[in-house]
Amino acid sequence: MQIFVDADAVDYKLISICHKGDIVVSQDYGVAAMALGKNAYAIHQSGKWYTNENIDQMLMERHLNKKARRASGKKRLRGSRKRTAEDDEHFRESFEKMIHMAMDKEK
């Protein structure tokens, strides 16, 4: 599938085809919030689960970080470190747990 509209077009398309019980992998808190709003599951590439209990705090932190970047004149405060094999393993374990939890809820 190819989408060429704007920066958020892929996000909106993803959410438009997302259904209850689906699992969305994203590093974008906004996408995660929209997925949770559709009763889907959302997980960050780090393995952290987005939940209805933590998403508001994460969105607020994103907002505050954006304000700090704007105030400092910097586009980014710091870059991401290189992904490691341990990061991949942590994600795999967390993702598998989420899959099992989602499947158990569907029973």
TrEMBL record:
Pfam families xrefs:
DUF188
Residue ranges of the region described as Disordered: 66-89
Which superkingdom? Answer: Bacteria
Output compositional bias ranges, type Basic residues.
66-82
> Which family, according to UniProt?
Belongs to the UPF0178 family.
- Protein name listed in UniProt: YaiI/YqxD family protein
